[in-house]
Specification:
The protein is of the alpha/beta class and about 220 residues long. The chain is built from 9 helices and 8 strands. It folds into 2 domains: about 160 residues, HAD superfamily/HAD-like (Rossmann fold, 3-Layer(aba) Sandwich); about 45 residues, no CATH class. Helix content is about 35%, strand content about 15%. Strands 5-4-1-6-7-8 form a 6-stranded parallel β-sheet. It has a two-stranded antiparallel sheet with strand order 2-3. Strand 4, helix 6 and strand 5 form a beta-alpha-beta unit. The chain starts with 11 loop residues before the first helix and ends with a helix.
Length: about 220
Amino acid sequence: MYINILLPPISIMAAQKDDIIIGVDFDNTIVCYDKVFHSIAVKKGCIPINVPQAKEEVRNYLREHGKEEIWVELQGMAYGPEILNAKPFDGVMDFFMDCKKHKIIVYIISHKTLYPFLGLKHSLHEYAQLWLERQGFYNSKKIGLTKDEVFFELTKEEKLKRIIKQGCTHFVDDLPEFLSEKGFPKQTSPILFDPNGKCKSPNKNTNNFECVSSWNEMSKKII
């Protein structure tokens, strides 16, 4: 099972000294795709409507029925045009605004291919930027990020290098396998965003990183 290593709360005083730099993944960490994947799959007739509205449930159903190629195609749609129908995870907007209020530096750092592997060819980067703009991440009266603080890297290796280059003291991701990468910087504290309770599973490998089940919990640890 995962070891939940509790990091000490980051003080506001430390944040004001610019000691804390937080990197945050994008897909499935900031953006919640559960209803989007379910809606697309039902409309295409790929799954019955009674499959639970969760990305992992849709993926598992398709894989169990030998439809891996359809699953890959659905990802191209969900991370492309359909992202505009996705919502932020509860509390994530408040987290970014809390960080802004207390002068904590936050970067969005994601591994995202430019185009889908299957299906129509559209820029996944452009749709991600449009989603951020529509949600108010670039609005100075809300979160107030600049595009220089958002990075969509083409490979996992480039994502790791970006975390190092931006000097992230903490990085939040939904994938335990990414946080466990050999190239993950030792000077960066890995935090697993775990809304589905992966940390509580007794079948997972042991990893020395902290788990948070929600963005509200993350805010309490930081502020």
